[in-house]
Amino acid sequence: MADGEQDQEQKTEQPTQKRLDEALKKGNVPVSKEVANFFVLSALAAIVAWCTPNMLRQTGRLLTPLLADADSLPVDANGIGKLLLHIVLGGMGIVAVPMLMGIVAVLAASFLQNGFVVSSEPVMPKFSRLSPLEGIKRMFSMRSVIELVKSLAKLGIVGYVAFLAVYPELTNIKRLPNSNTEAMLMFLLMLASRMTLGVAIAMFIIAILDTLYQRFQYFKSLRMTRQEIKDEYKQAEGDPMVKQRLRRLRMERAKNRMMSNVPKSDVVITNPTHFAVALQYDSASMKAPKVVAKGQDLIALKIRELAKANDVPIVENPPLARALFDAADIDEEIPTAQYEAVAKVISYVYQLKGRRR
Fold this sequence. Notes:
The protein is mainly α.
């Protein structure tokens, strides 16, 4: 089995939103040509049914004066130029509405399928398109075979519908040579309207079926393997190992900053061995003492060692140490529930230092 077929079999997962967004940026969207054909054909049916009689009348009004006074038309360059300008402007006025209807039909077909998609990717030159080998591969690919079968089926359906529209009028068609010009034109106009309307209805059904098929093929072409989804998740969320390493570095830096606050603290309250909480209090700038460092087990041991090395008083009070450890975070003031107990500790520390409140 070819490598491309193996890769396609492994792509069993539906495309992620990121994959769909990337395809949209590249202008890769599901497009059904049959939808455009239906809108153009519908516009043509409307033109034939509603606009053609008016266009014929306007054309008659434009040309009748010219034909009636053909012998008096100017033959000099200036006169012929004015005559051509008159005919061109009049013709533009006659075909303006049908042309506008055709443009609106094409834009509506594109907008209703995917909205307005603006991308320069589809028009960028690709050298792979110039390769004869790639062209032969595309020509004999399964997609080309399917498109050929679809085209033949569509041609058969449209031809059959057109035949059904004309068949009831075969007897009247045989009588056309015996009709006057106006009756002949009106009959042909009615026949063309009926035919285009029937074909438009058939194209509507074909467009719906082709739209469903194109969207199925589109999402199938964007399917992903499980590895691709994992890689995309890593790119979006970050590699778990890298995130863990960054988290560890942040914790180390926070720990180092915390430890640098221990020498500046006023007292360290311990459990005595499992918990240690360092407090700092300045009556001039603080409403209440705040926690500048805290830790458990090994970190608590490190806090006690730094406190001893910097002559920071250590007070053993297991209930208070545990309560402060659970209730207050770093750089937060102590809760009001611990005010009285901490006040006694601070007062005791001040007495040890020979200070008075």
